[in-house]
Amino acid sequence: MRAIIIDAPGNVRVGSVPDPTPHPDEVVIRVEACGICGTDLHLIDGDSPLARYPLVPGHEFAGEVVALGDNIARYSGSEAGVKVGSRVAIEPNLYCGRCESCRTGHENLCFNYNAIGVTTNGALAEYVTVPASKAYVLPDTLSLREAALIEPLSCAVHGMHSLNLRSGDTALIVGAGTMGMLLMQLIQRGGASRVAMVDLNVQRLARAEQLGANRTYKNIRQALADEPRGFNCVIDATGVPAVIEQAFMAVKRGGKFMMFGVAPSDASVSLSPFRIYNEEITVIGSMAVLFSFQAALDLITGGIIDTRAMLTSALPLEDFQKALSQVRKGEGVKTLILPNA
Ligand SMILES: [Zn+2]
Ligand SMILES: [Zn+2]
């Protein structure tokens, strides 16, 4: 089958790999749509500490079940019941189930963490094998392209659970990429009184306003000019250390500062410990997904998230390099690859 192959950091191509066969408890998915995200860029650039090469990337996907491994019958009739022909989205994180984190309800912090498309071959391919327990059957009303947004949304939902937004809070989101846009919509509809967004890209700011942001700014200084005391919740969705330092200045007394963007693993920032103490600022991390995949599926099915404005490009596998350059340039919001188009 055709697939995107990262042979080594900096070396990515459209190539051919053997068709997958399912092991016991696994199913084979014919991939309809797979999103490209920042994690894929990290994998291609070689700055993901978890990556194992050669690798087929792709972890934000939906498709149709085309083959079942042994044992799958025992899933049928259950919530996770899948059969040949089921339309599904996949939770890509693979937890060991045995370590201290897994056994204390923090599976996203698994000490033996793996993920489809990061440490095992992913969905930027015609077919991918996944554990049946990770497949979520979709309602007929939901298109498979929309369903490719469930995975990034499930990360934003986990962020919302950790942020614990209070009704009436003001919020500032720095970075109007896919994650920033999803978080903004959740915070907007979650009871915030005002949500502001910062991004350098004016097209993204226009789209953020269209999706419901109350105010948009090209930098944090401008946002602070309008809200001199800062915001109750400030979320970094850039992962850029210099931006994180500036965003910290926009946290109100008693406020919360969430690290959502993926900074380089060896980066550090300078934050005032006196302010954290004296102004009782809470710093929060949010990593991947924790019991938030079904919630994300339900939010998209319920029309709470505007998927049409989010899905700005869909290209065949052969156009991967073009798709990659769109993502690197920050054109549009979510770029999808359609491996079987
Ligand atoms: Zn992603
Ligand atoms: Zn574990």
Bound molecules: zinc ion
Q: What is the gyration radius calculated from CA atoms?
A: 20 Å
- Any idea what the shape is? globular
Enumerate how many helices there are, as a single number. Answer: 11
- Cα(first) to Cα(last) distance is 13 Å
CATH homologous superfamily heading of the largest domain: Medium-chain alcohol dehydrogenases, catalytic domain
CATH fold-type name of the largest domain? Quinone Oxidoreductase, Chain A, domain 1
For the record, the CATH class of the largest domain is Alpha Beta
Total beta strands? 17
CATH architecture of the largest domain: Alpha-Beta Complex
Features:
341 residues, alpha/beta, Quinone Oxidoreductase, Chain A, domain 1, Rossmann fold, 7-stranded mixed beta sheet, 6-stranded parallel beta sheet, 11 helices, 17 strands, binds zinc ion
Question: What would your notes on this structure say?
Answer:
The mean pLDDT is 95. It contains eleven helices and 17 strands. Helices cover 27% and strands 27% of the residues. The protein has helices spanning 38-45, 144-147, 150-163, 178-189, 202-210, 220-226, 241-248, 273-278, 293-301, 307-310, 320-329, and strands spanning 2-8, 11-16, 26-35, 60-68, 87-90, 93-94, 114-115, 127-131, 135-137, 170-174, 194-198, 215-217, 231-236, 251-259, 282-285, 311-316, 334-338. The protein has two domains: 2-149 and 305-338, Medium-chain alcohol dehydrogenases, catalytic domain (Quinone Oxidoreductase, Chain A, domain 1, Alpha-Beta Complex), CATH 3.90.180; 156-285, 3-Layer(aba) Sandwich (Rossmann fold). With 341 residues, the protein is an alpha/beta fold. The strands form four sheets. Strands 3, 4, 5, 8, 9, 16 and 17 form a seven-stranded mixed β-sheet that branches. The protein has a six-stranded parallel β-sheet with strand order 12-11-10-13-14-15, sandwiched between helices. Bound molecules: zinc ion (2 copies).
